[in-house]
Amino acid sequence: MHLCEHKHSAPARHKHVAQRNAHAPRNVIYFAQSYNKYMEKHKLNRFGAKLLFLPKPVFVVFYNGTSWQEEETTIRLSDCFEMDEGEEPCVEVVARMFNINYGKNKKLMEHCKPLMDYAVFVKKVRDYRKEGGSLEVAVNRAIDECIKEDCLREFLEQHRAEVVEIMLDSYSLENYQKIVEYEKEHMEQENQQLKGENQELKGENQELKGTVETMQNTMDEIESEKQTLKNEKQTLQTQNETLQNELDKNIISMVQMALEYGLDEISAIQKIAEKCNADEDYVTKLWNAHNKTEKYK
């Protein structure tokens, strides 16, 4: 990891990681330290009232883990934040991540031999590790072969002991177990959270079922009441028809009686309509229909 400073360029933080986003918070600390060094080097008073103008930062992450990753992607510090959906973070750091495993980002590797050599070295360590034997033997074999092939030769010759120590620390069983324990604890927390959310959803689901059941019962009651009203309406209509038939029979009988007492047909109809508070035309039609029926008997 190093800070690249140029007169007209931005401070650039380069960091290689074996996990995509697990180191994002730590990288922010490194970046802040880089700015701190920049201000110290240029004698900038960070405690003064004057506004300080700082170079625009460039944050690049080199990924060489074993999990599948795209050749280039963007990672954000806000991916680590616990936020509600749609909420904007108050602080953000955006980094470009390049997959520098052997065979990836070939154009980038062609223009940066140290990066290409580093990818070759890591691949050799992993390949020798797969063949069996100790990690230390695999690292030393990779160093010897890289020196012979002029791959990071000068760097490996000067810093061989440091490289071996770093590689052993990075790939040590203890370090691996710590990572596994961390991931396990993190997954257990997520599972516990998911269980809680599932329990809440079950409660909401049960509540919704109760609401639906209540609504269904209410609808059944309304449907039953509707059927009752229909039946009552049918009964009333039947009763009305019966009463109307009886009234019509009575009107015809009264007209017949009036005729028997010597009234003419028009006078009898008028008299009976008046007595029954009925429409004269209705009584006339009723009488004519009666006469027609009697005629065809």
Describe the SSE topology.
Elements: E1 2-4, E2 12-17, H1 24-41, E3 58-63, E4 72-76, E5 94-99, H2 106-110, H3 113-130, H4 135-148, H5 153-171, H6 173-260, H7 265-275, H8 280-295
Parallel strand pairs: 2-3, 3-5
Antiparallel strand pairs: 1-2, 4-5
Helix pairs in contact: 3-4, 4-5, 6-7, 6-8, 7-8
Q: What labels describe this entry?
A:
rod-shaped, disordered N terminus, 3 domains, 8 helices, 9% strand, alpha/beta, 297 residues, 5-stranded mixed beta sheet
Structure commentary:
With 297 residues, the chain is α/β, with parallel strands linked by helices. The chain folds into three domains: 1-81 and 89-99, no CATH class; 103-192, no CATH class; 245-297. 64% of the residues lie in helices and 9% in strands. It is built from eight helices and five strands. The protein has a five-stranded mixed sheet with strand order 1-2-3-5-4, covered by helices on one side. β1 (2-4) and β2 (12-17) form a beta hairpin. α6 crosses α7 (265-275), α6 (173-260) packs across α8 (280-295) and α7 packs across α8 (280-295). The radius of gyration is 48 Å and the shape is rod-shaped.
Total number of helices: 8
Give the number of DSSP strands: 5
Radius of gyration: 48 Å
Number of domains: 3
Helix content estimate: 55-70%
Which stretches of 5+ consecutive residues score pLDDT under 50? Answer: 1-13
Question: What is the 3D form?
Answer: rod-shaped
- Binned strand content: 5-15%
Give the distance, in angstroms, between the N- and C-terminal Cα atoms: 120 Å
Class derived from helix and strand content: alpha/beta
Biggest sheet details: 5 strands, mixed
Order of helices and strands: EEHEEEHHHHHHH
Task: Name the strands of the widest sheet in spatial order.
Answer: 1-2-3-5-4
Mean pLDDT: 83
